[in-house]
Amino acid sequence: MACSWLSAVVDDFNPHNQWGTSRTIHLESLNAEVEISLYNKRLTILNYSFLTNEGILDLADLIENLCSKYDLGKAWGKIRRKDLELYTSQGFTAEAYIDNFFIDEDAVICAKYFGDQRKLSLTSQHNQEILDRLDLIQITGHTPELPAGYSYRIAEAQDVEVLSSLLSQVFKTYPYPIDQTYLLSTLEHTVYGLVYNPEGALVAAASAETNGEFKNAEMTDFATSPDERGKGLAPFILYNLEKVLQEHEYRTAYTIARSSSFSMNKVFKSAGYHYTGTLTNNCNISGGFEDMNVWCKSH
Ligand SMILES: CC(C)(COP(=O)(O)OP(=O)(O)OC[C@H]1O[C@@H](n2cnc3c(N)ncnc32)[C@H](O)[C@@H]1OP(=O)(O)O)[C@@H](O)C(=O)NCCC(=O)NCCS
């Protein structure tokens, strides 16, 4: 590691929070914000702007050194399409894209792997079988409805306790914390849709994590109690979250969904989303690293 700025940034990074610690780096060549998640063994490029031609080289050096020091198998980020060649010149590959993520420009989700293990999908054949089955599905355009006696509402602070229990019941591990304190802190930019059954128990949830600057939202946190599945609760929540986004003139909704879940992928396909690619071993969910499919809807 030759440069002094590089050793200083790498040595000072201190990723104390296992879920994600981010740092902003200002150099003559670039400004960048990167996050390390030890839990997901992954580095995320959260933001970047290149100020000189050296910018991509400095960013690539930084990423390589951080991944080596903290034993991270994957670096990824949503980058502007116009910068794709810069990233591929540094060993990144395009795995998926998100239409109009930057309002009038697509994001390409790029990744670089460190070591041989992480880049090998263990489920690529199964992923393809699911996509092939989904190809046969006809989109009906029906407006989802709740079963009789069920009710829907947007989460408020008092709902986070039951939301946390539902998410913990459904997911053995999750890429982000799902405790009450964390969920409470997300309410500012995340809209949670909740379905309660006739007995008043929370039985399904999902969220729209909004990016107000670029008017896009990630549709995520889909969880339905095992004994309430197959009743159309997830499509109902998705439909209603999209309505909120439309009211606020959001342009793009996308999801990063488990490739192995036929039901989850079916919910998005049926709601008119299109598949744009698969992220290999992207995060630690339900007990291990899993591939994730990206689906988009934009207007
Ligand atoms: C994915 C998930 C949220 C779907 O929720 P849901 O409320 O059951 O959604 P749906 O009712 O539309 O079911 C989706 C499809 O899965 C099928 N399905 C899944 N589980 C079923 C069950 N137990 N009984 C019947 N059908 C089931 C249905 O065929 C349905 O298709 P359909 O439109 O032909 O009826 C839910 O299965 C879940 O919580 N899974 C575990 C958590 C998870 O993996 N979340 C995704 C993270 S990316």
Give a description of the structure.
The chain has 299 residues and is an alpha+beta fold. The chain folds into two domains: 4-113, Aminopeptidase (3-Layer(aba) Sandwich); 124-298, Aminopeptidase, CATH 3.40.630. The protein contains eight helices and 13 strands. It has helices at 4-12, 55-69, 84-88, 124-135, 160-170, 180-186, 233-247, 262-270; strands at 21-26, 30-37, 42-50, 74-80, 93-98, 107-113, 151-154, 190-196, 202-211, 216-224, 252-258, 274-285, 288-298. A seven-stranded mixed β-sheet has the order 7-8-9-10-11-13-12. Strands 1-2-3-4-6-5 form a six-stranded mixed β-sheet. Helix 2 (55-69) links the parallel strand 3 and strand 4. Helix 5 crosses helix 6 (180-186). It starts with a helix and ends with a strand. The relative contact order is 0.13.
The strand line-up of the biggest sheet is 7-8-9-10-11-13-12
Helix/strand/pairing class, anyone? alpha+beta
Oligomeric description of these chains? single chain
Categorize the overall geometry.
Answer: globular
What separation lies between the terminal Cα atoms?
46 Å
Give the averaged pLDDT, no decimals: 95
Residues in helices, as a percent range: 25-40%
Please identify which CATH superfamily of the largest domain we are dealing with.
Gcn5-related N-acetyltransferase (GNAT)
The top level CATH class name of the largest domain: Alpha Beta
CATH fold description of the largest domain: Aminopeptidase
Order of helices and strands: HEEEHEHEEHEHHEEEHEHEE
- The value of Rg in angstroms is 20 Å
Q: What characterizes the major β-sheet?
A: 7 strands, mixed
Helical run tally? 8
Please report the total strand number as a whole number: 13
- Which second-level CATH architecture of the largest domain applies? 3-Layer(aba) Sandwich
Instruction: State which percent range the strand residues make up.
Output: 25-35%
Low-pLDDT runs of 5+ residues are: none
